[in-house]
Structure formats: structure tokens, C-alpha cells
Amino acid sequence: MALDIVDLVAGYGDITVLRGINLSVPAQGVVTLLGANGAGKTTTLNAISGLQASVSSGAIRLEGTDLTRMPAHERVEAGIAHVPQGRQLFPFMSVRENLELGSYAPRARGHDKDVLDRVFSIFPRLKERLRQQAGSLSGGEQQMCTIARGLMSKPRYLLLDEPSLGLAPIVVKQVMSVIRQIAGQGIGVLLVEQNVALALKQAQYAYVLEHSEITIAGPATELQNDDRVRKAYLGL
Amino acid sequence: MLDILPQLLVSGLLIGGVYGLLSIGLTLIFGMLRIVNFAQGEFIMFAMFGAFWLHALWGIDPYLSIFIITPVVFGLGQLIERVVIKPILHAPHAMQIFATFGLSVVLQNLALTFWGPDYRSVQTSYTSQSFIVGNVAISATSLYAFLVAFLMAGALMAFLQFSRDGKALRAMVQNRYAASLMGVNTDRLNRLAFGAGVAYAAVAGCILTPIYYTYPTAGVDLIITAFVVVVLGGLGSVAGAMVGGLIIGVTQTLTGFFISVELKDVIALVLFILILLIRPQGLLGRAGMEEVGTK
Ligand SMILES: Nc1ncnc2c1ncn2[C@@H]1O[C@H](COP(=O)(O)OP(=O)(O)OP(=O)(O)O)[C@@H](O)[C@H]1O
Ligand SMILES: [Mg+2]
Question: Which fold has domain B5-115+138-278?
Fold first, then answer.
């Protein structure tokens, strides 16, 4: 029971960004994908959700279902939710409408109420702001709204692209505790982060992407003590 | 001279409602797909010929033919989106203009080949009927057209505001990538939007047949006004199209009477240029919407 990326080669047009990467996200818990700017982390997530990046070989499998050639909207239905980098909300729509769109996929229909209640229990802040335009939320609120919107589709796997980016330390803490909570509710989380120390604290397993390939992989506790990781990413 | 004013205002508003309906499809297609459909007028013209022939051959009332012609044009529109529009969605503007302008020329010539250049008109039992309210005469056909126009505008606004796909369409305009991440099939919605846009042209065509002449270049003459209305109301705004339509309708009628009939189109164009200078996003448009939409 996992989301498996097998020998994935992907890129944009003629540019190859990923040269045969392998990674596996179990159905529960947090896996983190680390790497410098431009390493190809977002590209990996785009390949999984079937947008922008094109896959030239390899496979993406969700608990046995082959997603590799599936159109993007069907992947959402299969159980993938991708919370994109940089808070891509619908700025001129209310928070409520943004959340409603999160449950657009048929798998979430009819469950809107339950999911909404669950989302509010995680993000009580959003409940107060339901009628506000998403574009006028504070940065932290926008990030919460993006994650909440992702949860609205009742995903089996949640892909989070740098959720802590640009947030105050206290908000980052909140977001991380939310991620632990989500992972505890039986959702497999793939967390992409620049904040390596933080990500290694949340995750059970970690991968490091360098020069288009996965160069280091192992349990998060092991990577915390890995010399290469400490030097290159933790500045120790 | 002033006691004619109520009559002019009413006539202007009635024709303005029709201008609004003419423009809705154009603004919908631009708002959703970021494509200026230069062939929009030809869809109006085809619907007019459809209504004309349904009436001539089987005596079907033009208002009734709305229910036959609109679904056909909606289907045809979806097909044309697939074949002509989809390949140019991300092409340079010049390409897009060539494609839809080319479509317009093809459709005009098809009409010319099939039906010749004659001006035709549909005569119904109520063509010359009018209602008298005080000292204002309201022509029945204009009134019906006006009512249909507002009904259609209201229906579209409700669809966009409340329905699942309506919300998805609005979301797609604001952020196409994020909409896809929500599981929105953007190809299907593009088809839907174009189909609906030309279907609105079809409704406009049907309600125009009792008022206006039907001929192969009828669409060209009508669509110029629609472009002015769309820019005045705000690109992509349905409510703006209706408001813009009313303003242009009244302005044209007043100018036509008090100044000169020759100047009535000129005044509309002057208004058009003024709006572009003073408020480029139009009356009800949202500033910066054109950039937001390209995401
Ligand atoms: N749409 C695109 N078209 C062409 N090249 C792209 C596109 N998106 C990203 N790239 C390139 O692919 C490479 C990997 O980018 P990617 O966004 O996956 O990096 P990242 O690891 O997410 O970086 P960051 O931490 O800065 O977000 C970069 O060299 C980038 O310039
Ligand atoms: Mg990235």
C-alpha cells in the first residue's frame, strides 16, 4: 500500500529534469523529498499529478493502479492531492468557494460537510474567514487555505510543496503540527521542503534529490546524522 | 420635442437588451478562453438562417426555434472548439485572430453558397403588433427579445455563480494550473464554454429574425456593436455586457433622433474610445483580469 515512483524520467519539452528516480510514499506517515533550488522537487510532484512536466519513461503507481498516462483530473479522483508551491489560490473567490472547489472531484461529492468539519477542526482560523476573498488573506492564512483545499478531495496521498515557505516561525510550527495530524489520519504525505532540519523532524523517511537523481535515501533519523546531509543542508 | 423622450428611452432600452444578448457569448468566450471569437457574428447569422428556414418550410415560430437551433449550435460549437480553437489556445495572438477570422470567412461563404446574398425577413402574426402604454408604443417583437435577453443573462449568471461547473469555470480563469489540481477537466470546460458562448449567439440570432433582416453578412454588421458593448461593459463580465448593451442602445437611439441617423454608430465608437482611455477594464470588468486569466 503505497504511492510508488519507479525509474521516473521526466522534464519539460527537450529538457530532462529527472533522470530515473525511485521513491515510495507509504499509505500513512510522512516522507520528505529534499534538495537545493532547481533540483527538480516540484517537477517530481508535477509528474505525479500529471501537469506541466512530461514523463518520458518509468512509472507512477498508486496502490497498484498505473497513473503514468492518466489525465490529471482522473489522478485527483484516484486519490492524489497536490498542494502547490506558492499558494495558488483562486484569489477573487471566497475562502468557502476555494474549499468547495477542493471537493470538485466525484470522490469527495456528498461528503463535503464531513470533510469541511474535519478541515475546520484542523484550521479553526479558516472558519472565521469563510466569506473573505482568498486573495486578501494573510500569507499564513493563504497557506492554510491551500492545504485545507487540498484535503477537501479526501485524498489518499497528499503532496505538499514547500508549505513553510515565507511563513513566520510560529506559523511554520502550526503548519508542521497540521502535517503530523494529517499523516496520523491515514493519509500518506510527501513533503517537499527547503527547511531540511524541520522536514527531517516530521518525516519517517527521507530522500535527497541532487543533479537529477536521488543521491541519499533512508530513515529520517539516519539522515539527521548523515555527514553529507549535515554539511550540505543543515550547515553543520 | 421632449415628449418623445420616453418613447426613445424605451426603444433604446429594448434594443439595448438585444445588444446585450449579442455580446454575452463574445464576452463569455473571451473571459473563459482568452480568445476573441471573430466568428461570433456568423453563429448569430447561421441561427438567423436556421430560424428563417424553420419558419419558411414548416411554419415554426422563431421563438420556438430557439429550442431546436440552440442545442444544435451548442453541439457544433463544441466540435469547432475541438478542431479549430483547442490547437490555438496557447498560440500567439496573431494566430488566434487568423483562425477565428478565417472561421468567420468560411461560415459567411458557406451561407452565401447555400442561400445566396438576398435579404430575407420573417413575418409573424405579431410582427407589427405593439402595446401602447401612455404615449409610448412598445413593439411586441422588441419586448419579447428584451425579455429573452434578460432571462438568458440571468440564467448564465446563476450558472456561473452557483453550479459546480460554473464555479470551476471561474476558478479556471483565475488559475488554470490550480483548477487542474482540483480535478477540473480543463479541456472539457473549454469545450463547454465555447459551446455555450456560440449557443448564446444562436439564441440572439433566433430572437433577431422577426426584427432584423437575414443575410450572409448580417453577423458582421451586428458584431461590431457587440465588440463596443463588450469593451464598454468589461471583458469577461456578463452583467457588464447587459449594462453596456443598454447604454449603447439608448445612446444610439437618442443620437439617431436628436443629431442624425448617420452619426449613431459614430457615437458608439466615440464612447468605445473614451472608455478605453478612462476605464480600460470597462464598467464592470476587473482591472488586471486579462493577466490573471493567462495563468
Ligand atoms: N515549466 C517549466 N518549463 C521548463 N523548465 C522548467 C519548468 N519548471 C521548472 N523548470 C526547470 O526544471 C528544473 C527543476 O525545477 P523545479 O521547479 O522542479 O525545482 P525545485 O526543486 O522545485 O526548486 P525550488 O526549490 O526552487 O522550488 C529547473 O532547472 C527549472 O528551471
Ligand atoms: Mg519547487
Answer: ABC transporter involved in vitamin B12 uptake, BtuC (1.10.3470)
